[in-house]
Design a protein that fits this description.
The chain has a single domain, classed as Metal-dependent hydrolases (TIM Barrel), CATH 3.20.20. Strands 9-8-7-4-3-2-1-10-11 form a nine-stranded mixed β-sheet, with helices on both faces. Strands 5-6 form a two-stranded antiparallel ribbon. It is α/β, with parallel strands linked by helices and 241 residues long. The protein has six helices and eleven strands. It binds zinc ion (ZN) (2 copies). One zinc ion (ZN) binds at residues 69, 77, 156-157, 163.
């Protein structure tokens, strides 16, 4: 076992607030240059660029975990990490089921184009759904759905002034079912329940942000299963920095 450095919160050009040069290929290249062993690609409410990201990473030194940053009805951001693209795609299907994130919702009024690309950085299309919107499903329902798909649910930037558990609920419920919480250091750690493992990630929206914050995991390999064991502190795995 050794320490693997991971940045588990990175947006591609599909996210409305991310820069257009955040292509999967560019992200992998930058992550490798920054010495990262593992990243998670976590676009807002979409799995659309995951297959390009995993394709770009194949055979390289940076492992990619398929993820998504889901916006709950309370406008809390939740990082959902999965073992497979299929699980992430099923999460997306459940998110859009029932009419949330409707196509042609005027996405261009917010941020930049939402670009879907292939492994070669060629544009495949533009996502018409308003990815900056919110689900009608509440926080606990979303965490339950992530867990039902075998995924990990992490409270995004849990101590930030916007779109966080603290900002939206006013406090952090001790009994929330998160597997871990991402902290930014913006608020005293005492406001967050001690029982949750702390993670540091960049929430990168531009190439220069990738790897600016990272977490070290003691694991046997940079895989989803090892990551899940490290977050849960099982089998000698754990968070080491
Ligand atoms: Zn967020
Ligand atoms: Zn984010």
């Amino acid at each position: 076992m050794r320490i693997y450095w991971a940045d588990l919160h990175i947006h591609t050009c599909l996210s409305p607030c991310a820069e257009l040069d955040m292509t999967p290929k560019g992200i992998i290249k930058r992550a490798a240059a920054k010495g990262l062993d593992m990243i998670a690609v976590t676009d807002h409410n979409s799995a659309g660029n995951l297959s390009a990201a995993l394709g770009c990473a194949a055979g390289g030194t940076v492992a990619v975990i398929p993820g998504m940053e889901i916006t709950s009805a309370e406008e809390v951001h939740i990082l959902a990490l999965f073992e497979t693209i299929d699980a992430a795609a099923e999460m997306q299907r459940q998110l859009y089921d029932g009419g949330d994130f409707p196509p042609d919702a005027g996405h261009k009024a917010f941020g930049t184009e939402q670009v879907i690309v292939n492994v070669a950085d060629e544009i495949l299309g533009f996502e018409p759904r308003l990815l900056a919107g919110a689900s009608s499903k509440g926080l606990e329902d979303i965490i339950g759905a992530v867990h039902a798909l075998g995924g990990l649910a992490i409270a995004s930037h849990s101590d930030r002034e916007s779109f966080s558990v603290l900002s939206q609920l006013g406090f952090f419920p001790e009994d929330a079912m998160f597997d871990a919480i991402e902290v930014t250091g913006k608020k005293p750690d005492t406001l967050l329940p001690a029982r949750f493992p702390r993670l540091h990630s960049s929430d990168a929206h531009s190439p220069d942000m990738i790897g600016r914050k990272k977490t070290g995991f003691m694991m046997e390999a940079p895989t989803f299963r090892e990551l899940a064991m490290a977050i849960k502190g099982e089998g000698g795995r754990g968070i080491r920095g």
